[in-house]
Amino acid sequence: MKLHVEVAQATGWAAALAAALATGWPLSAARAAELAAPAPSASAPTSSPTPAPAAPSTSDTALPAVVVTGSRISRIQNEGPSPVTIIRSEDLDRLGYRNVSDALNGLTENTGFTQGEDFGNTFTPAANAISLRGLGPNHTLVLVNGRRVADYPSPYNGSTNFVNIANIPSALIDRIEVLSGGASSVYGSDAIAGVVNIVLKRKVEGVTVNLRAGGTERGGGENARAQITGGFESGAWQGVLGVEFSGREPIWSRQRDFMSDSSVNGAAPSVVFGRRNAATGRYLDPGAACEAVQPLFDGSVKAVSSRTGVYCGSGRASPSFWTTQTGNRSAQAAGSLTYTVHSGLELFVEGQFGWARTENNTRGPSWTSEAAGKGYFRNSTTGLLETWTRRLSPEEIGGADRFNRRWQDATHNVAVGARGELSPTWTYEVAATSAYYLNRTTTPRLLAGVDTLLLGPKQGVDADGVAVYAADPQRLFRPLTTAEYDSIIGASKGRNSSWNQQLSASASGNWLTLPGGPLRAALVAEAGKQGFANLTDPRLGQGVFYNTTESASIRGTRDRLALGGELNAPITRQLTATLAARHDRYHFAGRNDASTTYNAGLEFRPLSSLLLRAQHATSFRAPDMNYIFSQQTRGYYSSSTDYYRCAQAGQPIDTCEFTDLSPGFNFSRNGSKDLKAERGRSWGLGAVWQPSQSFDASLDLWKIAIRDLVTDLSADRVLRDEADCRTGIKDINSPSCQDAIGRVRRNPADALVRPGEVAEILVNPINASKESTWGFDIGARYSWATQDWGRFVLNAKYTEVRSYRYQQFAGDSNNNMVGTPDFGDWPNKFNAGLTWQVGAWTHALAAQRNGKIAREDREGWLGPYWNVNASTAWQVDRRTSVGLTVNNLFDKVRRDPSATWPFYPVGYYLPYGRQAWIEVTHRFGG
């Protein structure tokens, strides 16, 4: 996992002033400042070596109005009842972030495990997600300039909708604001865990060119990026444009010594050529046949003796085809154009466009005889029921990348509208937005003719309906020619799209005058339409491809209406109250769902250097459209583990013969139009203290609870629960056990072949009873300057999850999972950073400590883990700078001694090792 430090945490005046540019809602920063009382100019955010401005007093001195995520009201206070974390654009590169998703995943608030684009075998390997407070990607709302964007067209983990943060360019980003906690009363559905608002630049002077190139020390992952940003002002016109081109090569498992062979830790080599007696499950001895295929997989194929007989195997079969980092080519563009009609009215258009091509590989072509049927056949030459298996090697197919999967993405987010003044103290904005995401997939597949190629012509079926072949083993135990492979390879095509269209109108300003100041208010009305379409290849399940099932295309739309309002009431000079309420109504699948949410907060400043705050909010999430509209889907998992059979055999999971069976078990999944909306509540209690210009600190307690959680049960979790229930570890009569056992359908114990094996797993979505989590954040910043050694800034932040509870059904146990192997997220994260500026040089160290996680065997723990990034930059002159960034400074790769291949905690940490890149920036004009 890349390690990053969170830069500015909005804990005190200096941090919050990082938000000095407005998000564009409801008016520009410049216009907001004109409406505010005269005030001193804002200083740099906390990560800057420049000393922070003096702490606020309770005098009449006003500050420039700013808009901060979490409210639509332009505040004259820097801190509110909820903390907001801010990452500035310059910190994305300086602190070792590869991209925007790296920066967000490095936040301490992001304690949830997610399957990103480098996770490997996922449903969304071309996308990244964020999981604030560990509540899942679909509970964090992602905005660009305060506006909703289109979801990624393919659902996360095959079930939930989310926003892809992998394709957001950094070229025009001004800052990223992260609000953790319920915010549905301001933004509507999805904002249960929090909101991420990516704010793009509104003004750029001159033209800036940024070039970056680098790679990994251990090989692979070469990357390059070019950015061009520019802006202009001409009379009433003002515009900004930025473009970004980037590319990176994949990193293959074979490029990392420790996982270039799956058998180095004593595991049995993977089966490359295997011939089993289907009735007994034992391999039929291949004799000297393994010698003829020994040159495949880099000369690693050999005869392997196992408990079930001899087969031809190789430890390089999986590593030869596995990419631990995807390859990518992308082009992104973003810009805005504003026309000032007069001092109280401006027209605007904003746009963001992207194109990307992503490739990855998780396994090479493999084949099992009659896989679409019974999985075995009657060999008329031997009279036996046999099962043949075969993996194809890179040497046979012309290189591993010939079996790469490919994703081609095209996106746009466009907004047009007008904003201006309704009165000297009220402003408004009306806007129409359109967001669209198109994803085309290409998946290489073996054609149905592979059975004939390896078994010979089918002779019919026997009395039991079993396919009959006169199969000659010499057809199996031989390398294929490239021409033979070309005759049995094809590709399926998929087309996935999603869209989000919205009309909105808002107004904000001063309403009444209270003892503590003006009562500020905001109103918003929205109407929108959202939809998606997942169109599968019609050839699937039609006998064109080997072992595929028919997959239904899925479409769905929903309409939304919303009306909301906010109040910010300075009751006294020291006490401010906030209140927000919103009503959302969704129409989909012939039904209407409505929700009214509210948010109430208090800010108390007993001293000019101290803020005490409290907040309570309700929130909701409408059921994901994929859950609602999906039809029955059948398929199979790439690999599965039969925990019950391992327990029956008394074999530990890491060496069990039923671990990581490939291909895995079949599954069946249905959507449901009867799912209820989720309801959430969040609480916050905190303090911010800034006794001097150079120091500030904050402490915030938080809690989030969800009822009627919509979830698609994990097949692996179901199999674990089934095993625990059948073996007496859990109460077999409990609701969860009864549900788990009913979801796993097994062959009869006396079946002719595969007795007791899993035949199918049912993974339908449900409304779980409830989920809750609570913990605390603590952060601090200290800056100092010396006459000879320059300026320094030290900052740190720590998040700890104290409790996480999940109750699937009422009556189930509701124990705290933190500290147990069932808790699959980070229990705590700590970020720290040191910036040193001396002369024309700026140096930075960014460190992150991740808390312990369970080992793969669930019998122990991988302890806390540190990693460090470093950078140095030289400002050659006022227009040109040169920098060097080193990621993972100490070249550490996290290993799990209990893990099966690839031997590291996939998803939690990355096996890249040390990476570095050189960056050059030059500005023309301005």
Automatic annotation (TrEMBL):
Question: What keywords appear on the UniProt entry?
Answer: Cell outer membrane, Membrane, Receptor, Signal, TonB box, Transmembrane, Transmembrane beta strand, Transport
All copies of the TonB-dependent receptor plug domain together span 79-195
> Which first-to-last residue range defines the signal peptide?
1-29
Regarding the membrane, this protein is recorded as: Multi-pass membrane protein
Q: Which Gene3D superfamilies match?
A: TonB-dependent receptor, beta-barrel domain, TonB-dependent receptor, plug domain
Q: Which PROSITE patterns match?
A: TONB_DEPENDENT_REC_3 (PS52016)
Q: State the residue spans of region: Disordered.
A: 40-61
Q: Domain TonB-dependent receptor-like beta-barrel, which positions? A: 379-889
Q: Which Pfam families match?
A: Plug (PF07715), TonB_dep_Rec_b-barrel (PF00593)
What is the annotated localization of this protein? Cell outer membrane
Highest taxon in the source lineage = Bacteria
Coarse class of the primary localization is membrane
Q: Which family does it belong to?
A: Belongs to the TonB-dependent receptor family.
Which protein is depicted? Answer: TonB-dependent receptor
**Organism whose genome encodes this protein:** Roseateles amylovorans
Lineage, top ranks: Bacteria, Pseudomonadati, Pseudomonadota, Betaproteobacteria, Burkholderiales
